[in-house]
Amino acid sequence: MVKNPSEPCCVKGKCCSESYYEVKPEPGKTIDSWDALLTFYRDSELRHWKKRWIFRGHRDISWCLETSLERAIRRQIGPLGIRAAKWEYKLERYFRRIAPMYLPDAPNEDNWIEWRALIRHYGGPTRLLDWTYSFFVAVFLAMQQTKDHEHCTVWACNVDWWKKCVVRRLPRLGKIVKAKNSKSETEFNYLGNLKRTKGIWPVNPFRLNERLHAQQGVFLMPLDVSGSFMENLRDLAKPTVGRKHLWKINLSCNKTFRKECAAELQRMNIQNENLFPGLEGLARDLENEMLMPEHFKGIEPKP
Predict the structure, then answer these.
(1) Among 20, 99, 166, 251, which is least packed by CB within 10 angstroms?
(2) How far, in Å, are 1, 30, 143, 251, 258 from residue 61 at the CA level?
(3) Low-confidence residues of the chain, pLDDT below 50?
(4) Tally: H helices and E strands in the chain
């Protein structure tokens, strides 16, 4: 298989785009306790409401930022390129034809953002990359299923800064957003017809599903599906500038820290049962409860 030279080429322990983000707290160091996590958050600009940071948790420190669609195409077909747009169309069309049999209220045919959000909700591949407005939700998701002495990551993205980069490139899009003409969804119409323009853009359907609402979710979408997420991001700014607005926050998953996180985040009402509403979330929480045996004090099976 011939590798597309414009695509990221990550190897274990080294990301192809590491010059485009800052590692926190600093290279070679990790956050390894709840108190250290709170101190880092309190002293950083992440909590400043005037800057809209969004977050994404990765349970493996070696994972790069990539969409489920680009992973699926590379795994099943090969390199990206023009085939990505063709497969995006084919897969979405297939889903749209069959899904209404299972949906009591299917989206309108031309509402592509709601269709893509639905596909992601049920685990299918799209160009939408899941993020959250909550730093602590991202920490919870990053910590899931980690083991002692492993490392996980919370990515932080100053989304408004990256939006400004796109608006400088596409001033018409900036005018559309400023007009706030949401009834006709002009922004989505414009984005849906955009071709061969690189960048990343935050999107969300008007009708949120339960999971998006519970997780304070938002999507980042690469504008050019023929390129990877990181390729779209790298095209917007030089690394010396862009890295100030994209951070990789590394956490050390020792058992004490994992237990502290499980207990403290549960007090914040951040647990699977709430983030994944229904029995799925309740079942997911069972493993986390094992970190807190005090919850089961005095409960023993009958002999």
Answers:
(1) 99
(2) 27, 11, 11, 9, 16
(3) 1-7
(4) 14, 7
Instruction: Tell whether 23 is covered by a domain.
Output: yes
Structure confidence by residue, pLDDT tens digits, 138-172: 999 999 888 888 899 999 999 999 999 999 999 99
> 155: alpha, beta or left, given left = phi > 0 and alpha = psi -120 to 50?
beta
Dihedrals phi, psi of 114, to nearest 5 degrees: -70, -35
Please count the CA atoms within 13 angstroms of the CA of 6 that sit on its side-chain side.
12
At 199 the pLDDT is: 96
| Phi, psi dihedrals of residue 300, rounded to the nearest 5° | -135, 150
Residues making up the chain, counted from first to last: 303
Q: How many domains does the chain have?
A: 1
Q: Are 253 and 247 in contact (CB under 8 A)?
A: no
- Report the candidate in 206, 159, 164 with the shortest Cα–Cα distance to residue 183: 206
Question: What is the rounded distance in angstroms from the CA atom of residue 221 to the CA atom of residue 232?
Answer: 9
Q: How far is CA 50 from CA 35, 108, 156, 160, 202, in A?
A: 25, 35, 15, 10, 17
Report yes or no on 88 lying in a domain: no
Name residues whose C-beta falls within 8 Å of residue 292's C-beta, 6 or more positions apart in sequence.
259, 262, 263, 266
The answer to the question of residue 3 being in a domain is no
Task: Report the alpha-carbon distance of residue 53 to residue 155 in Å, rounded.
Answer: 10
Structure tokens at 162: 């990256």
